[in-house]
């Protein structure tokens, strides 16, 4: 985790990597900023007991927390940590069973106040050259606008694949908000699930995908969708309601992640924050399953 340093140059040794990971878990669990995390570690004895620290002693400050999260980003360790938690869940006997559910949720970030011409250049992958280096650091040029139910949203998307029996997140992907849910569907499929059943909402419905799922041995329970020329008949609506009873389980996860706003800049940092969001959910789910 840490860069090799020369002990002859002096300086304090870094905090233990496991301790810093536990700090990020607390931060995500209580949705705290770096400064609030530092304050709460000193203020709450429950935090200190969890971390093995004392309020009067040396605790990680806000800058230390930020630097550790940056190291996770630079070394791309979030997926490995997520996989380690999944391994523990499987080892406890909660393997993926009874099919999988695929869905996505928007993850908002603070809006960027740019003029329309600059937004058009950012969307085209050409950020304004007249921006100073300091201003560029404060501008998220990778988040995107999208519309859902007639409302505009700015940020990223958290795409999930959840096993039906234990409601554990098995795979996830992070994209900017304008990417359609269906574009990452195949990346999320869990081949280790004991059942070939797949549930998803009508946004994923596509005739080519239905054929591909059948060839791969999956049984599709993706919602049917109507059109202006042809509305769903009563039989199709009844089938959708039956599918919704299973597909609704993924909405329980999004309800637990209700406060999804992240205050980071760039998709690499968003991947760390969203990955920790999914990882902490799985930790809570394991505690509930074994409780």
TrEMBL record:
One of its GO terms (biological process) is DNA transposition. Keywords: DNA recombination, DNA-binding, Transposition. Residues 116-137 are annotated as: Disordered. Residues 6-71 form the Transposase InsH N-terminal domain. It comes from the Bacteria. Residues 101-283 form the Transposase IS4-like domain. InterPro entries: Transpos_IS5, Transposase_11, Transposase_InsH_N. One of its GO terms (molecular function) is transposase activity. NCBIfam families: transpos_IS5_4 (NF033581). Belongs to the transposase 11 family. Involved in the transposition of the insertion sequence IS5. This is IS5 family transposase.
């Amino acid at each position: 985790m840490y860069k090799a340093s020369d002990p002859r140059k002096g300086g304090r040794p870094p905090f233990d990597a496991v301790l810093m990971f536990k700090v990020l878990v607390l931060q995500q669990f209580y949705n705290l900023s770096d400064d609030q995390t530092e304050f709460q570690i000193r203020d709450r004895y429950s935090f200190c007991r969890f971390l093995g620290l004392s309020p009067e002693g040396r605790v990680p400050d806000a800058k230390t927390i930020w630097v550790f999260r940056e190291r996770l980003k630079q070394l791309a360790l979030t997926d490995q940590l997520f996989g380690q938690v999944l391994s523990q869940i499987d080892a406890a006997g909660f393997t993926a069973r009874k099919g999988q559910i695929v869905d996505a949720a928007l993850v908002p970030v603070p809006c960027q106040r740019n003029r329309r011409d600059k937004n058009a250049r950012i969307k085209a992958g050409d950020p304004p050259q007249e921006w100073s280096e300091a201003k560029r650091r404060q501008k998220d040029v990778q988040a995107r606008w999208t519309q859902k139910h007639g409302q505009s949203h700015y940020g990223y998307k958290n795409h999930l694949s959840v096993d039906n029996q234990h409601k554990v997140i098995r795979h996830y992907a992070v994209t900017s908000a304008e990417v359609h849910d269906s574009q990452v569907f195949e990346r999320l499929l869990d081949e280790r699930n004991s059942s070939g059943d797949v549930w998803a909402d009508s946004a994923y419905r596509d005739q080519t995908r239905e054929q591909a799922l059948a060839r791969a041995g999956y049984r599709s329970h993706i919602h049917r969708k109507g059109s202006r020329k042809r509305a769903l008949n009563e039989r199709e609506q009844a089938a959708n309601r039956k599918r919704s009873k299973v597909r609704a389980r993924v909405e329980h996860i999004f309800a637990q992640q209700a406060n999804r706003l992240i205050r980071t800049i760039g998709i690499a940092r968003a991947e760390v924050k969203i990955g920790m969001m999914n990882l902490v959910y799985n930790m809570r789910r394991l505690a509930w399953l074994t409780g």
